[in-house]
From TrEMBL:
Segments forming domain FecR N-terminal: 14-56
Source organism per UniProt: Methylomonas methanica
UniProt key word Nucleotidyltransferase: no
FecR protein domain location: 115-207
Transmembrane residue ranges: 87-105
Keyword Membrane: yes
Identification of the protein by name: Iron dicitrate transport regulator FecR
Amino acid sequence: MNETSSTRREALQQQAVAWHVRLTSGAADETVLAEFEHWRSQSPEHEQAYRDAETLWQRLPLPLLADRQRRRALAARQRRASRIKRGFGLAAAASLLLAAMGGFYPDYLQHPLADYRTRIGEQTSITLADGSIAHLNTDTAIDVTINANERRIALLRGEAEFDVAHDAGKPFRVAAGATTTEALGTRFIVRYDGKAGAVTLLQGKVRSSRPSAQGAQTDSVILQPGQQLTFTAETFGVLQTVEISNADAWRRGRLLMNFVPLKQVVAEINRYRRSQIRLLDDKLGDREVNIAVDILQIDAWLKALQQTLPIKVVQAGPFVFLQS
């Protein structure tokens, strides 16, 4: 399989960061150092990727560097307390490497046996056996059960829009945690991060239900088009009116957000990126902005951002930082 230059560059950057974490953990022995030298000597691109990773830490603000030094000191004390030095060193290096790679590939570790999934940055549409269509957004996993009694989708993670085929004899239900949404002939979106989520009705009518705190009863809310219901593991939120064109903009490859804090914008954009954007200024994160972003052109949006707002974009290797 041929890799594009950008794909190869991204892979090398991720490997370089993983090596930097491993080498600076204090757990690297001569074998690890030899493996690293072999990796770095494979090409000038390998060497440059590692230099970029080193540059990253030099550019980090002092508070972040101090926190990293604190964690390294703690790790060193823990290592000194161990009597099996080599075994501990290898285990620590392996766990740090896993953590580093997990930071870049969290979607590979989430719900690997789901019926349908998308990776970070991917979107797909699935026609189910009953003719309904499930449009999966980035980093999403679902299980599908269709039998004689019902059509049931378990949204394990992520976001999906459902265009439901009419079948009066088989209810269409989407379960996200303790909240189940039943379609009453409709098109709707469910989003869920494992703890909380939202149901947004685009067309038709849905009923969202969950077990009541009182026990046997259930709490139930019926949504009308343009309404959104948030939920947590414990309760429903208050029904809100949303702009439908914004709610399903991701289906058209866009992100549209009006008068929202920049930190909310960054959190939303990070759902589509392996290399995460970080805010280094809390006040900057509270600044309200309006955005219209092409999901495939996020880097271009970042460049435009610092031209329109008093924001500095610092990029080092695969990392991007925003500061005033």
